[in-house]
Amino acid sequence: MRRKASLVLLACAVFCAALSPLLRWYAFPRLARIPAGQYQDMVLEARNATLLDYGTMRAKKVPKVTIVQTLKGDVEAAEKIEKTAGRPVVVWDSLSYVQGPDGKMVSKVPERYIFDAHSQDPVHATGEMVDGDPVTREGIEFKWPFLTRKRDYAYFDAQTRTTSPIHYRGTRSFRGLMVYYFEQTIPWTKVRMPKTLPVQGITPESVARTGTTRWYSTVRRFWVEPVTGAPVYGEEIHREELRGGTLLGGRAKVTAFAGHVKMREDYIDHTVALVKHNRTLVLALTSYVPRGSLALGVLLLALSLWLEARARRPRDPAPTQTAGPAQVSA
After folding, report:
1. Minimal CA–CA distance to 223: which of 168, 181, 277, 281?
2. Which of 114, 122, 126 is nearest to 90 (CA)?
3. Which residue numbers in the chain have pLDDT < 50?
4. 16: CB partners within 8 A, 6+ apart
5. Which SS3 state, helix, strand or coil, does residue 284 take?
């Protein structure tokens, strides 16, 4: 019975030892994926900002500018692209909607972002765009890869339609989480006018005919939870200007928008709670279960060897009964 038990334990030990790398290197890339139908929104605010009044073409201070960002997964489009891409794909339709303190629209810029569901690498397919213009993204946008590393990443900037490094600046603590801090600076760059403007009748084409151009600069900051690759907080020091042309009435430039854009507090709390939950799930696949399985395998192997050694140990012979001295009767 001991030998049979040792063989069963040995088989279980082999299974546990094999399960450990299988979970980490086979199951993890197939199970840790961004859901194709995910929907999320985010509200950011810039308080005491500078905003252009398109009616007077003068910049003025306003108490608050609000940016509402939404991401909506297109499952049907993702399934079509997967057939030719040969890998799991996520299609995000995003909208950045900017409104002034009176609630009126300042601008809205739609995007379609297509990427690998696990690695977050961009996948190039028909429909990839920013504000209706086809683009070919390089680098990440919105989210870092699972198991983010302490290094610089290529990050796509939707305003300039270009990719440049976003730099790792160190490890920090944020709301009970260990996060990586990344920062990117986009210098003053000439960019396209949004296709939807707040004044009816004014279009990018009509503005272009006046000779006025739009310029943009920002300092982009993200606090990223490295296990999930999800930003738990982000902010931008954002500036836009209109320069030259007859639209400005002889002025060289005017500020279109300037402000320190930050995530609203309630969305920070929600994001941190969601990331903490997802972090546990990712760690279960990459650390907890593989390491626990390996440790259990070692323990079962040791127990199996111990039982085998006991089974092979020779038993002590039974003591023989010796006869006592014969009694002599008189």
Report:
1. 181
2. 114
3. 323-324, 326, 328-330
4. 293, 294, 296, 297, 300
5. helix
**Do the beta carbons of residue 69 and residue 98 sit within 8 Å?**
no
| Cα 323 to Cα 212: distance, rounded to the nearest angstrom | 123
Q: Provide CB contacts within 8 A for 301, sequence distance 6+.
A: 9, 10, 13, 17
Q: Residue 4: what pLDDT? A: 73
The span from the CA of 94 to the CA of 176, in Å, is 29
Element spanning 118, H or E = none
pTM for the full predicted model:
0.88
Identity of the residue numbered 152: D
Which are the contacts of 256, defined by CB distance < 8 A and separation ≥ 6?
51, 52, 59, 214, 240, 241, 242
What pLDDT, on the 0 to 100 scale, is given for residue 14? 86
What is the reported pLDDT for 250? 86
Which pLDDT does position 91 carry in this prediction? 97
**What pLDDT shows up at residue 238?**
96
Phi and psi, residue 57, nearest 5°: 60, 40
Could you give the CA distance from residue 172 to residue 122 in angstroms, rounded to a whole number?
Answer: 28
d(CA 329, CA 238): 122
| Nearest-angstrom CA–CA distance, 180 and 233 | 11
CA 256 vs CA 16, 43, 57, 236: distances in Å: 62, 20, 9, 16
In terms of Cα–Cα distance, which of 310, 313, 314 is closest to 9?
A: 310
Average pLDDT over all residues of the chain: 90
Angle at which helices 2-22 and 289-312 cross, to 10°: 160
Q: What is the pLDDT of residue 313?
A: 64
Residue 93: φ, ψ to 5°: -100, 115
> Looking up tokens 């005491």, which residue turns up?
48
Question: Residue 224 in contact with residue 182, Cβ under 8 Å?
Answer: yes
230 Cβ partners below 8 Å, 6+ apart? 143, 144, 224, 271, 274, 275, 278
For position 3, what pLDDT does the model report?
Answer: 62
Asked whether 16 and 294 are in contact (CB, 8 A), the reply is yes
